[in-house]
C-alpha cells in the first residue's frame, strides 16, 4: 500500500463534518474504531510482510475486467483490464488482495445503497492458490522448473501476503468512501459502503493480523 495516500485520506476524514443525522451517526460509529491507531497497526503489519513493488491497476473489480469477444468458449480465455484511473506502482499484495476483496461486492444494484455485499463470495484458499499459481507461472518463467515443494512454499507465502494486504484494501476504500460521502454528487451509499468495508476489515483482521 502506498502509505502516503491512505494517510492523506485519514487526515481528511479526521477533519470532516456531516450535517445529516443518518450520515453523522454512521460517521461517529466509524470514528469510534480509532482509525489512526488502526492505521498504525496496519502499517506495522505490512512493513513486516514481504511484497514486491510492481505496476498495479489498484481497482481490479468486475466493472473493469472485460472478456474479449470470441473468447467465451475458448480454452484460454483472454481478459482485458480497463480504467487505469487509480493505477500506479504499488505493492503486489495490495493489487491482488484488492481483487480478492472485490469478489464480495456487487455494484449492479439499482436501489439504494446501490451495492450488495456477500462475504461468503470471498475466494476460498483453493481459489486463491489457483489464481496465485497462474500469476506466478506467468510472471516468473522459472516457476515451472521448481519442485512441487518449492512451488507450494512460494504460493503459501504469497497467500499470506495478499490476505494481509486485503486489509489495506478495505481500509483504503473505507476511508475513500467516507470522503466521497461528503464530496460526491453521485447517487451511491458511500457511508454504507464505508461501513461495509470496515466491517470486512475487522472480520479479516481476526485471521490475518498478528
Automatic annotation (TrEMBL):
Q: What class of enzyme is it?
A: transferase
Q: Which InterPro entries match?
A: Kinase-like_dom_sf (IPR011009)
Domain of life according to the entry: Eukaryota
Q: Indicate whether Transferase appears among the record's keywords.
A: yes
**Protein name (record):** ethanolamine kinase
* GO cellular component entries: cytoplasm
What the entry lists under SUPFAM superfamilies is as follows:
Protein kinase-like (PK-like)
Q: Does the keyword Lipid metabolism apply?
A: yes
Instruction: Please give one Gene Ontology molecular function term for this protein.
Output: choline kinase activity
Name the UniProt key words of this record, in alphabetical order: Kinase, Lipid biosynthesis, Lipid metabolism, Phospholipid biosynthesis, Phospholipid metabolism, Transferase
Family in the record: Belongs to the choline/ethanolamine kinase family.
Tell me, what is an example of a GO biological process annotation in this record?
phosphatidylethanolamine biosynthetic process
EC number from the UniProt entry: 2.7.1.82
Q: In which pathway does it act?
A: Phospholipid metabolism; phosphatidylethanolamine biosynthesis; phosphatidylethanolamine from ethanolamine: step 1/3
Amino acid at each position: 500500500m502506498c502509505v502516503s495516500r491512505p494517510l492523506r485520506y485519514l487526515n481528511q476524514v479526521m477533519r470532516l463534518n456531516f450535517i445529516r443525522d443518518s450520515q453523522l451517526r454512521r460517521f461517529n460509529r466509524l470514528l469510534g474504531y480509532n482509525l489512526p491507531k488502526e492505521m498504525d497497526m496496519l502499517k506495522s503489519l505490512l512493513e513486516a510482510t514481504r511484497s514486491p513493488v510492481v505496476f498495479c491497476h489498484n481497482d481490479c473489480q468486475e466493472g473493469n475486467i472485460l472478456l474479449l469477444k470470441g473468447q467465451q468458449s475458448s480454452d484460454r480465455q483472454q481478459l482485458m483490464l480497463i480504467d487505469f484511473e487509480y493505477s500506479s506502482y504499488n505493492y503486489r499484495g495490495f493489487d491482488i488482495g484488492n481483487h480478492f476483496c472485490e469478489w464480495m461486492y456487487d455494484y449492479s444494484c439499482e436501489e439504494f445503497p446501490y451495492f450488495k455485499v456477500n462475504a461468503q463470495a470471498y475466494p476460498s484458499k483453493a481459489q486463491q492458490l489457483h489464481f496465485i499459481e497462474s500469476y506466478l507461472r506467468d510472471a516468473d518463467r522459472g516457476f515451472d522448473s521448481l519442485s512441487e515443494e518449492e512451488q507450494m512454499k512460494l504460493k503459501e507465502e504469497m497467500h499470506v501476503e495478499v490476505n494481509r494486504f486485503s486489509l489495506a484494501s478495505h481500509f483504503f476504500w473505507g476511508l475513500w468512501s467516507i470522503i466521497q460521502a461528503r464530496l460526491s454528487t453521485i447517487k451511491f451509499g458511500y457511508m454504507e459502503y464505508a461501513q461495509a468495508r470496515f466491517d470486512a476489515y475487522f472480520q479479516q483482521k481476526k485471521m490475518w493480523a498478528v
